[in-house]
Amino acid sequence: MRIFVTGASGWIGSAAVPELLAAGHEVAGLARSDTSADALLAAGARVHRGSLDDLDSLRSGAEEADGVLHLAFKHDFDAYASSGLAERAAVETMLGALEGTDKPFLFASGLALLAAGRIATERDASPFSGPESPRGGAEQLALSAADRGVRPVALRFAPTVHGAGDHGFTAVLADIARRTGVAGYVGDGSNRWPAVHRSDAGRLIALAMDEALAGAPALPVVHAVAEEGLPTRAIAAALGEALGVPTASIPAEEAADHFGWLGAFFSADIPASSALTRERLGWTPSGPTLFEDIAAGAYSAAPVSR
Ligand SMILES: NC(=O)c1ccc[n+]([C@@H]2O[C@H](COP(=O)([O-])OP(=O)(O)OC[C@H]3O[C@@H](n4cnc5c(N)ncnc54)[C@H](OP(=O)(O)O)[C@@H]3O)[C@@H](O)[C@H]2O)c1
After folding, report:
1. What is the CA(236)–ligand 1 centre distance, in A?
2. How many CB atoms are located within 10 Å of the residue 12 CB?
3. What is the residue with the minimal CA distance to atom 31 of ligand 1?
4. What is the residue range of the signal peptide feature (predicted)?
5. Which CATH superfamily is domain 2-160+196-224 in?
6. Of 44, 106, 238, 276, whose CB has the highest number of CB atoms within 10 Å?
7. How do residues 48-71 score in pLDDT, each as one tens digit?
């Protein structure tokens, strides 16, 4: 099958593309630059030129495909509202192109605020509704398109999809620790973050795509979660040890100053289960744990580009 992939050149996309190719699919990846186009060609994908700001390119990419994997996102956390609006516009456009076709639309989402005080499951609905909400309320919008002849599947990634070369949240935490000389956590650091290795996330995406190509999934949510909830205090301690800096509590009222935009995310308690995902898709994470990656030096000199 031909799969249109936005964000194919990104951290998760570049792990998903080889898995989709290995499953026998043809991949057309969205590329907004020559660098991204070259990376896609080298990976064995075709190139579909365009960008999140060029809705026609998203429409044609979706129309020409048997299924869509949408991973591109504007990771400008200082302008998060406009990233959300762009996400909503992109999702609306591709859903429009797929309407009435019964084709899969797999899209990236997150685990924030699904279930206060308990472990979130795939059955918990996203609380974010409307264009002004985080990620433009795209999860609710897309899942409601099941009524319009589309097979939407929310891929809820753990906040750290980790591994050597990561430039996501854990890399930013490491960068802050290097810069401030302290591996901080917020308050008592008992709030938990789930984690998944990038290789496991890539494999899971291909499994979810094949499930959705075969028929509309009864439960259209996938949790890319290998570890349910690591205390953020322990994450900070692991980073501190790897970087040779002390670990310290940062009072909640100083979190924004210390961590910048990441403060709100690193304060969140968002444990999540993937039991239903594992059972349904036969997925067993086998990559390194977050602490194994940190101890192996994956974050000891990580560049940060977002
Ligand atoms: N990584 C994580 O830990 C994590 C955790 C939870 C959720 N997620 C979500 O999972 C998805 C994939 O994340 P990721 O870590 O793979 O992101 P990433 O490494 O930052 O890659 C982002 C991708 O989006 C593309 N992109 C960004 N702006 C674009 C634009 N204006 N037009 C076209 N393409 C654009 C990038 O293309 P270029 O190559 O041209 O830059 C790149 O392929 C995102 O929705 C993210 O929010 C990730």
Report:
1. 24
2. 22
3. 52
4. none
5. NAD(P)-binding Rossmann-like Domain (3.40.50.720)
6. 106
7. 999 999 999 999 999 999 999 999
